[in-house]
Amino acid sequence: MNMAEPSNEAASSSSVSEQAASVAPMRDELEKVEDFLEPDKKRRKQVRGDGKTEQKLEHRLGGILCCAVCLDLPRAAVYQCTNGHLMCAGCFTHVLADARLRDELATCPNCRIEISKTSASRNLAVEKAVSELPAECQYCAKEFPRNSLERHEETMCEERISSCKYSRIGCPWRGPNHEGPEHEAHCVHPHRTGADVMEALRDIDARTLEERRLYDNVFDLLSYEKITFNGLYMSFVDVFTHFSPFYYLF
């Protein structure tokens, strides 16, 4: 009873052989298709085989269009040497000033070619491309184009840090902009006495005067457009006079 009949064994063996015969051509076709497929590293897709996502286009462009000195994206003008290496306006000015202080020729930090105000040129294409790249708001963490991010952070973001409208009479509150109306409705500084207000005004005047002195010093330093060095050499010459056997020439 447990032994299989010969007819059933023959049928099962024939079905297995047919399945094997049908699988073999499919395997050959798959091997041919895999020969023409690109490797995973060459495929342009968002998710690789190991599950890690590739960087976005704006992040890759940020690494290409960044300044060669500070490695940050320029915020204003973009200058380039004759070989095309990019520098932001601040770093470009710093390189020129540093070379002038050392009494040396200013050179590009990448290729060491000589640069100056006349040889370097602005790259308007890079400036426009950088201005359209997205950047994250420091208050609400939302992304906006760089050309509108500053306006959003200063006037439109509800999470931006703002002061109380009674700060001129001594209120020290600072917080999110959307919490300002609630604080101002319960602020106690409008009900303070004149003596308390005058004390706060004196403190504000003292801070303002200190800031003004600082800015005056900065403006004085920036007003020196050209920094030059004058060498002073001294030598003595013998003179047969009754006053002195020698004197110095300056």
Automatic annotation (TrEMBL):
<feature type="compositionally biased region" description="Basic and acidic residues">
    <location>
        <begin position="26"/>
        <end position="54"/>
    </location>
</feature>
<keyword id="KW-0862">Zinc</keyword>
<feature type="region of interest" description="Disordered">
    <location>
        <begin position="1"/>
        <end position="54"/>
    </location>
</feature>
<feature type="domain" description="TRAF-type">
    <location>
        <begin position="133"/>
        <end position="171"/>
    </location>
</feature>
<dbReference type="InterPro" id="IPR001293">
    <property type="entry name" value="Znf_TRAF"/>
</dbReference>
<dbReference type="InterPro" id="IPR013083">
    <property type="entry name" value="Znf_RING/FYVE/PHD"/>
</dbReference>
<protein>
    <submittedName>
        <fullName>Cysteine and histidine-rich protein 1</fullName>
    </submittedName>
</protein>
<comment type="similarity">
    <text>Belongs to the ZFTRAF1 family.</text>
</comment>
<dbReference type="InterPro" id="IPR001841">
    <property type="entry name" value="Znf_RING"/>
</dbReference>
<dbReference type="InterPro" id="IPR039338">
    <property type="entry name" value="ZFTRAF1"/>
</dbReference>
<feature type="compositionally biased region" description="Low complexity">
    <location>
        <begin position="1"/>
        <end position="25"/>
    </location>
</feature>
<dbReference type="GO" id="GO:0008270">
    <property type="term" value="F:zinc ion binding"/>
</dbReference>
<dbReference type="Pfam" id="PF02176">
    <property type="entry name" value="zf-TRAF"/>
</dbReference>
<keyword id="KW-0479">Metal-binding</keyword>
<keyword id="KW-0863">Zinc-finger</keyword>
<feature type="domain" description="RING-type">
    <location>
        <begin position="67"/>
        <end position="112"/>
    </location>
</feature>
<feature type="zinc finger region" description="TRAF-type">
    <location>
        <begin position="133"/>
        <end position="171"/>
    </location>
</feature>
